[in-house]
Amino acid sequence: xxxxxxxxxxxxxxxxxxxxxxxxSQWRERSFIKNTNYRVTGEVLEASCADQASMxxxxxxxxxxxxxxxxxxxxxxGVHPELEDTxxxxxxxxxxxxxVNAANSIFPWRxxxxxxxxxxxxxxxxxxxxxxxxxxxxxxxxxxxxxEPEKWLKEVRNVREDFKNYFGEDITSIDSVxxxxxxxxxxxxxxxxxxxxxxxxx
Length: 202
Known about the structure:
mainly beta; Jelly Rolls; 14 strands
């Protein structure tokens, strides 16, 4: 696991994902059913799938008392409004980013995660329990077809406050950050793009 001190940082800015070729060695892939097509192009991570589902994750300890604010940018080619996000059949996303608190690594089912997604049909701002994991909360930071598919949207979330709001606990650190573009449940193709993932004090 990478500690804060080993990461690229400037004062209270902790960089997680710039998606250079060198940085990609810090990320690992976990496949659920075949591998999503992840490709780095000019400090952008491009992800596409048709019936695949794999995540890229980075083991990293973030002190949420010091740097609770998560920043990132993304965009999608499109979504599938006919999918019901709250069901297992509809749990596919062109882009998702999530943060994990593994309270006890001996019992991984106790890990808690907040998943930030570009929802297919749930409205922007909605939150709901994951259809697959009891301790995962899904949060729609964007929803529906993009008005400008190639426009980057910047997202900002207070991760510590999100854990308080959705789990009722003051969680002061996370253990990993992950991204996933997946199509395994619906078999409907998706394509999304990620860049500039970082934490800050404000």
